[in-house]
Structures are given as structure tokens and as C-alpha cells.
Amino acid sequence: MLNVGLIGLKGHQGAILNGVAAMPEARLVAVQDDDESKLAGVPGWAAADEDTLTFTDPARLLEEVTLDVVGICGTDAERASLIVAAAERGIHCLTEKPLAMTLDELDEVREAVRRTGIQLSMLLTMRFEAPYITMRRMIQEGAIGEVCLATMQKSYRLGQRPAWQQSRETFSGIIPFIGIHALDLIRWVSGRDFTAGAAWCSNVGHPQVGDLEDNASIALQLDNGGTATARLDYCRPAAAPTHGDDRLRIAGSEGVLEWMLTSEQLILITNNEEPCTIELDEGIDQFADFAASVEGGGECRVPAEDCMRITDVVLRLREVANKGEVADLT
Description:
This protein has 9 helices and 15 strands. It is an alpha/beta fold. The strands form 2 sheets. It has a 9-stranded mixed beta sheet, with helices on one face. Strands 3-2-1-4-5-6 form a 6-stranded parallel beta sheet, sandwiched between helices. Helix 5 runs antiparallel to helix 9 (304-320), helix 6 crosses helix 7 (174-190) and helix 7 (174-190) packs across helix 9 (304-320). The longest helix has 17 residues, at 174-190. The model has no long low-confidence stretch (mean pLDDT 97).
């Protein structure tokens, strides 16, 4: 039996809970959050049972419960220290993003993982979605030739943002929080890494959300000489039919692949073929993928090395944002 704990209910914890509920060999042992009203609903969860414990203090959960895996889904500010604490107890970690708020914290996480040998992965949930799995496979197969340009958009409704996302003391910012998905997908789907980048971010239209930026633009150089851009915003109108408007376009020497969430279509056009709609591969359950790596000792789809790399990238880009500088990403 795989004993699973969950610290924090402020992110993509559904990816963990759904995975646990679907795996007879996994059990949700304990859940923590600082909001007791959220904990009150735990007994009704499909992933829980009558013996699932609840805590308001994450340190108590780690001290009092024996775990194989812990999901860390609280605020950005507490994540790095909790990863280190779990690693020191030999507990494998599947965490929210980014891994850390600062580069120094990231170094501490990196050292803890190296020293203890735990499995670490991050909830880069979009890697497990059918469109991006399909795009990656097709690019690897040469469908568009050499990658020249990658463009990613992530646009969200602002909605009611929690207090912790409105303070730089507890929130990493729009680039590490949202941009990490966009940049990870560009890197993973295209097969290209970044060598340099510049970024800008600000809050122009929504002063009510404090330190939370409502827009960001990122420009990057790829390791083959190509370029990439990412645009992020919390400006999607409340009346829009979906919460998010995600778009990924990869242009190559022989064609273009483009996915738009709003149309739910992946389109390929090449030098030899007119535009066509591509049938999507199957999506993958991220928790099941991580659990298999824990039990079998293999590598999961989002290995620790990738988590460290993309966290480093977004933290460096946040540092240069609005300074007119270029980040060295080598």
C-alpha cells in the first residue's frame, strides 16, 4: 500500500486526489490545510476513508504520520522548506510549482534531493494532456522539421484571487506561477532548451489584487538559434466561455503545429499538405505516473532535473522583468 499525504489545498491537488481515488493500492492517510472549513469536507472525498487524518499544522503531519508520498500544494512561500523537511524523512514529493521562491531556496531543495535520493516531481499538469503529448510526439517524428519558433499563450479570468496570491511575501508572481507552465511546455514539446531571455510584467488594470501582476510577456532564444515567446494575463473577460484560453504554436522548417483550447483542435499544415485536424493521443494520469516511478525506481514524466531547470528559468526571468536586462539561461 502506498501511503499518501497532502499538505495544502491551494493548487492542483485534484491531480493527486483523483489519482489516489483511482488506485486501489494507494491510500490517503492525512490532509493538512490552514483553513479548517476546507478540512471539514475531507470525509466526503472519494480519495479519503474514515481513517484519513486532518491537520492544520504541516509539521505535525510530517512528524506524526508515516508516508511514502506527500503532495505539497500550499502557498509558494512555504514550499521549499516543506520539500526539504519531507526529503529529510525519506518521503517522495509531488509538489506545486514553482519549487521555490528564490534561487537560494532552490539550491536548498536541489541539495536535499541529491542527499536523500527521494523522487521529486512537480505538478506541471499540462505535460499529461492529450494535445501536448501529441505535439511532442509529432515534432520528435519530424512532422514540422527543425523547430524555428514557439509561441505560448496562457490567459485566465481573474476571478476572486486568494489573499496569499496578492502578496509578494507568499506569492512568487505571474511568471513563476503561470509562466512556468508555458515555458515548460515550449521546452518539453519542442525539444529545445533556452539560452537567454527577457521579460516584462506589471499590474495595469487590477489594483485590487495587490502584488499580483495581471500581465507578462517573455522573449527567449532557443539553443538551436530559434526564438520563443510567451504571453500571460489575468485579463480574460468574466463572460468568456472558458476560464482559460491556452494556445501553443510551434513553427518549423517544414510546417506548423497549433493547438487552441477554445477550439479544442490541433491543426497541422506543412509544405506538402493543406491544414488538417490531428487525432489526439491519450492523456496520462500524473499521479499514477509518479507512483510508478516511486514503486519501480524509474523516471517519471516530469523528472526532478526538469523541475529544477524550469524553476531556475522562471526565477531568473522574474529577476530581470521590467529591468531592461537579459537573463543568461545557460
